[in-house]
Amino acid sequence: MTASRQQKLADLFTSATVIPVLTIERLEDAVPLARALVAGGVRVLEVTLRTPVAIEAAKAMIAEVPDAIVGIGTILNADDLARAKALGAKFGISPGGTPELLKAAAAGDLPFAPGIATASELMQALAHGLDIVKFFPAEQSGGIKALRALAGPFPNIRVCPTGGVGEANAASWLAEPNVLAVGGSWLCPPADIRSGNWAGISAMCARAMKLLKPA
């Protein structure tokens, strides 16, 4: 993976501050949800491949919400990575990294952040030129203390912590020098999506951006 591609991913994450992790159950929710997030100042979105409608939901967001920067999450293998690229995703994120997936990501041109939780997993990512990673599950893997420990032998890593990150602790994570952005689902609670509370989601996003985004 080229340095310019890595820089593109770094710029995306830095501009995002918070990347909502979206699990979309109903296709009809995709476009209004994306519009609500963008209206609240949250433009970089991760659509996870956890539901049968995920791919179509991402396609709809890309087609109908041009201000949204849509990436694909829960990429588990090379086929998922290829699907993300084909549908026009701007980046990919995985919860972990198999040798096959890391090799495909390094050979391709889609900005990609593999998931890591240990030094060994991080070393595998770095061996493939992937120095921007998703620390997952962040809180359950030791939290900020664990991230600081990893940064000792690997001072140049850049990280997006996800898993247990929410409104109460996002600022603490973002204060870490190697954290580019945080990922989480708290900006779009499932109950609000089910009820179509788009105004509430926009308001929550606007509040988070005001509190968390650097001046």
Automatic annotation (TrEMBL):
Class of this enzyme: lyase
Pfam families assigned: Aldolase (PF01081)
The keyword Nucleus belongs to this UniProt entry's keyword annotation: no
Highest taxon in the source lineage: Bacteria
EC number(s) on file: 4.1.2.14
Keywords from the UniProt entry: Carbohydrate metabolism, Lyase, Schiff base
A GO molecular-function annotation: 2-dehydro-3-deoxy-phosphogluconate aldolase activity
Reactions accelerated catalytically: 2-dehydro-3-deoxy-6-phospho-D-gluconate = D-glyceraldehyde 3-phosphate + pyruvate
Subunit description: Homotrimer.
Protein name: 2-dehydro-3-deoxy-phosphogluconate aldolase
